């Protein structure tokens, strides 16, 4: 049996598993094969080397173990309120109460009176007496006075526990697996990498990640496996980039007459240094003869749209058409209105295609795109329809690109069968560097990291519900100065689970009562598009002074006159969402404000989010903290991207390992692009053992 086939062995054939348990493991933990199980790593370890006496216990201790003798047990209460209570007495005669609320009958049968046990659990104190609820129990045999060193704890589920498959049972399965699997484990990194980074060999790493002999060996195993995982992810991304740059030709855009005219005669403001740097990076790509594939990151209001327009002008100057695709009609309209003024002055035909474009207008647009009369078009998903054809599509710009799936984006690229268009993807959701390297390592990244001149930083404050009257007075003062106000709620209607959070309908009524002298708009996701648009337009035209909304305004309309953003139940929102919402104000020259409203009951994470918002406007710093709080899964809709395929590395904590792994992958490919050299045989063999669609190359077969 080859190594690859061995790790593809179905899990039911492992000693102690069998068909019924195998089915549960597949459904609950996606463990189908030996390879899946050996890479089901413990999420923490219990230190079982130290024993405590009852007199040494303290409520702040996490989990502790105590040795003692059971002296009496009884079932207390009736029916569902039944519980089993037992008394454990240690060698000093001090008592610890043990309590079980579940599995009472089974525990009563198995727990032996006048017998010595090791109990392991979380101590809690009540009226000067310590107790443990649902402790782990181990009968203390005479010869067994100590237990293993670090005991692995594996993720499991309620359903598995109900079928008696808990962490201990998984550990037993892992013991059986390692016995047969270790001889089959082959080294997957080159001797040079192992030597340079002082890495533990792979067999020892598997042993010590599951059953560590010492803390030092555990740390070495963890570093080895994290390094390997991140190394292979970077290697895959770099190889994609190398292949694309070698294979994919791009149109050469080196003529810029209209762009020069735009700079000299029509641009009413200066670009920031960051914008100039980014335009230079893009121009270098467009003249290189290779396809551009660039990610443009910039905070809300940093001026990405004008950079996009400059790029579209360069394409037009070279006889190519360009597309700017946005995720919502509101955002597409905003881009269109902003750019049309410039396009008209330059005599450029700029179109707009969204879901609500009339059939008669569509016919004209389709004809102009096919003939090449229309050089630029802004739109939504409507641009992806097969009927939309171009004479020569040379540039695709995708805004808020994480809202489009990979398949949707590639549909756009395929609209030029002769030569693949240049691609610029833009996002106002700042992506932490570690995540950008992992998600977009195959793209070149440009960052606009300064705001245009004259923009003031938004002042952010946190206020409790008890300050509401003062906040409302502040709103009145701002409206008297001619400004407008957003008030954002997390929910549309009250729900039983969240009745303590302000809901939109209730909020709308109370705002109308509090401000009878002003007009109030309301927008939420359940409104029909035309109704939403009507309400938005009223606010844009200053016919309404207050906009009550849910997060539908998070990405979208640009109202320079709106200078106050109030976020109700701010603890309900994630950091990046709070930052996006705050970016709706601060778009004019006036000082803008963001007020975060909450009750007094706040979790530790909520406090961190609110303090971060008050302290900084820097989107990248906010994204880094968000990554630490939430992990990569929630950011950027990464569920589809494969980044969640990580088995042991953690992007929020492992940035230094990622940097080293990235440098190593780059060096290996630079010296041996095809991985043909003998010293890279392990790496080559490992990649060949994987199926073509494996995202995480560090996986076993």
UniProtKB/TrEMBL annotation:
One of its GO terms (molecular function) is ATP hydrolysis activity. One of its GO terms (biological process) is DNA recombination. Residues 285-448 form the Helicase ATP-binding domain. InterPro entries: ATP-dep_DNA_helicase_RecG, DEAD/DEAH_box_helicase_dom, Helicase_ATP-bd, Helicase_C-like, NA-bd_OB-fold, P-loop_NTPase, RecG/Mfd, RecG_dom3_C. Residues 473-633 form the Helicase C-terminal domain. It is an enzyme of class 5 (isomerase). Its EC number is 5.6.2.4. Gene3D superfamilies: Nucleic acid-binding proteins, P-loop containing nucleotide triphosphate hydrolases. It catalyses: Couples ATP hydrolysis with the unwinding of duplex DNA by translocating in the 3'-5' direction; ATP + H2O = ADP + phosphate + H(+). Keywords: ATP-binding, DNA damage, DNA recombination, DNA repair, DNA-binding, Helicase, Hydrolase, Isomerase, Nucleotide-binding. It comes from the Bacteria. Belongs to the helicase family. RecG subfamily. Plays a critical role in recombination and DNA repair. Helps process Holliday junction intermediates to mature products by catalyzing branch migration. Has replication fork regression activity, unwinds stalled or blocked replication forks to make a HJ that can be resolved. Has a DNA unwinding activity characteristic of a DNA helicase with 3'-5' polarity. This is ATP-dependent DNA helicase RecG. It comes from Pontibacter chinhatensis. The lineage of its organism: Bacteria, Pseudomonadati, Bacteroidota, Cytophagia, Cytophagales.
